[in-house]
Specification:
Arc Repressor Mutant, subunit A, 2 domains, two-stranded antiparallel ribbon, Rna Polymerase Sigma Factor, Chain: A, 4% strand
């Protein structure tokens, strides 16, 4: 089935490179969930993640001729998305955006039985520095291995592993409370 999907994406890529809009639409449809997911989990803002995803696909459209295969396409999209997320995060530090209206996010069913725990974990992950946060998201949200993350972020595998370990230790520390000399894990 995966080989069939790869051949379908290869065909769509070939069509898109030749200017076929239906081929490009098929590429977007196949990968929009991944791009949005990375952006949303990094930025924690639905509207900004949607806008960033549109920018990534516009950039893809402008650079279609440089894409060599369906596997390269997926790698390229992840790489561009991670860089755009980091750039957006840096822009927000210097120019924080304020929404005109506070709109509640739609309620989403959580797989976690304790929604307060899930919310606290998301906020704690969001408080990590950029590189650490991106590595945690790529590892646990996108389920990439350390070697894939290292290739994507252009860093040594051991750096990815040590950064991931430090990030997890920091998350554990932030999510553990000390009560009267005894430690209680909140997760």
């Amino acid at each position: 089935m995966e080989a069939q999907q790869d051949s379908r994406l290869e065909a769509a890529l070939g069509k898109a490179i030749r200017g076929d809009q239906a081929g490009f639409a098929e590429i977007v449809e196949e990968h929009q969930g991944m791009v949005f997911s990375i952006a949303y989990h990094f930025l924690r803002n639905n509207a900004v993640a949607e806008e960033l995803a549109q920018e990534v696909f516009l950039h893809l459209y402008q650079n279609l001729s440089s894409i060599q295969s369906a596997a390269h396409l997926k790698y390229w999209l992840r790489r561009v998305t991670t860089h755009r997320c980091i750039d957006q995060s840096r822009r927000q530090k210097f120019r924080p955006e304020v929404a005109l209206e506070e709109v509640a996010e739609p309620a989403v069913a959580s797989s976690s039985p304790d929604w307060m725990l899930s919310e606290r974990l998301q906020k704690t992950v969001a408080s990590l520095p950029e590189k650490q946060r991106m590595i945690v998201i790529l590892r646990y949200q996108e389920e990439l291995g350390p070697a894939e993350i290292a290739e994507l972020l252009k860093m040594p595998v051991n750096t990815v592993k040590s950064t991931l370990n430090r990030s997890l230790a920091e998350l554990r520390k932030r999510l553990t409370r000390s009560f009267g000399g005894m430690k209680y894990a909140i997760f």
